[in-house]
Amino acid sequence: MSDANKIQFKVELELYLKSPEDIQKWALDTLEINPSDELALEICFLADLQEIIEYFKKIHITDLDINTRNNVIHPLLNKYVLSHITSIRSKEDIYPFFQKITLISKYLEDKNLNNLLISYDDEFYLALENYSPLEPMEVFHNFINELQKWQKQTSI
User: Fold this and answer.
1) How far apart are CA 73 and CA 76, in angstroms?
2) In this predicted model, what pLDDT tens digit does every residue of 82-135 receive, in sequence order?
3) Quick one: which of 69, 100, 83, 75 has its CA closest to 5?
4) How many H helices and E strands in the chain?
5) By three-state DSSP, how is residue 12 classified?
6) Please, what is the average pLDDT of the chain?
7) How far apart are CA 59 and CA 44, in angstroms?
8) pTM recorded for the entire structure
9) 73 within 8 A of 11, measured Cβ to Cβ
10) Are 61 and 104 in contact (CB under 8 A)?
């Protein structure tokens, strides 16, 4: 479970779904239940919140088991999309959202997702630079539909 927790916390920090304070609280709560939990002990021995951030930055997810990564990251990606989709209200909001999804996708090693992201990266560029007949928000909605289709296919 420790590897799964490491992956989860790393990705949640990168997506701003959890703060270092949340992880620190998790470690303290976990130690009350299981005083020998290795990850919780490691986190509690870190001096401050910045050290927690640095600790998780140094973790190389690609060194961990692909099945564990997929089982942890797929739900986090879904959570991120669902929790942030309503905050995309203008074309300026699209690219940061898209970049976070691209960041997570590198851990999944999913060819279909990578192809989808490459395709929509081009579509967004063309729409944002007015080289496309589609408006950026139209491209965004198309992207979300395709992303949701991908998510359904991978959860089967």
Assistant:
1) 5
2) 888 889 999 899 989 999 999 888 888 889 999 999 999 999 999 989 999 999
3) 69
4) 8, 0
5) helix
6) 90
7) 17
8) 0.80
9) yes
10) no
